Amino acid sequence: MNRRTFLRGISLTTILPVTTFLTFEQLLAQAMNDAMVERLKKPYEEWRDLVSPEAFRVLFQEHTEDPGSSELNHEHREGTFICAACYLPLFESQYKYESGTGWPSFTQPISGHVGTKRDFKLIILRIEYHCARCGGHQGHVFKDGPPPRKERWCNNGVALKFVPIVDQLPALRG
After folding, report:
1. Where are the alpha helices (DSSP H) in the chain?
2. Integer angstrom CA distances of residue 16 from 22, 24, 117, 118
3. pLDDT digit string, tens, across residues 102-135
4. What is the DSSP letter of 172?
């Protein structure tokens, strides 16, 4: 038995009952399965030249940026948060809120635009989510968000870009 199998077994049997995970997973599946996004077949290494080194580490090596380091924590304009690698829209600004965690947080993603998987890197079970098109790691979803969904989609700011609604852009000078 390898270490990962052992830790996975312990976390499922002693920390979180399997029924809790399945119920949570089913809720997430309902929340994001309205539409399917076609997956890009680009190898992760090809993204290295298209994003910053820090974004590459987060998106394709599953690192986490330091809390409080993202300018997107203070972004309050209307618009859309998109994947920093492939530009797939992931979150609408109306679902962004201040979670106090130091990372941009949302109450829900755009349906069908994220995928989830189990994450045992911290020994306890967490739900990791990623961009449905490029597979880039975005963050983790937790069950401690505000009502009515009680979900906190905690995102690495470097894994996102923000696109404001056009009427909020400064007027172009002629």
Report:
1. 3-10, 18-32, 44-47, 53-61
2. 10, 11, 16, 13
3. 999 999 999 999 998 776 666 677 788 999 999 9
4. P
CA distance readout (Å), 90 to 50, 138, 164: 19, 10, 14
Domain boundaries, the chain: 3-165
Q: Which of 95, 63, 58 is nearest to 79 (CA)?
A: 95
- The stretch 29-36 carries a mean pLDDT of 50
Q: What is the mean pLDDT of the chain?
A: 80
pLDDT value of position 50: 94
131 is catalytic: no
CA 80 to chain centroid: 14
pLDDT band at residue 32 using 50, 70 and 90 as cut-offs: very low
d(CA 128, CA 126): 6
Nearest to 130 by CA among 149, 146, 151, 109: 109
**Per the residue annotation, which of 86, 131, 134, 154 is the catalytic one?**
154
pLDDT of res. 120:
62
Q: Angle CA(89)–CA(157)–CA(164) in degrees, nearest 5?
A: 50
> Does CATH place domain 3-165 in 2.170.150.20?
yes
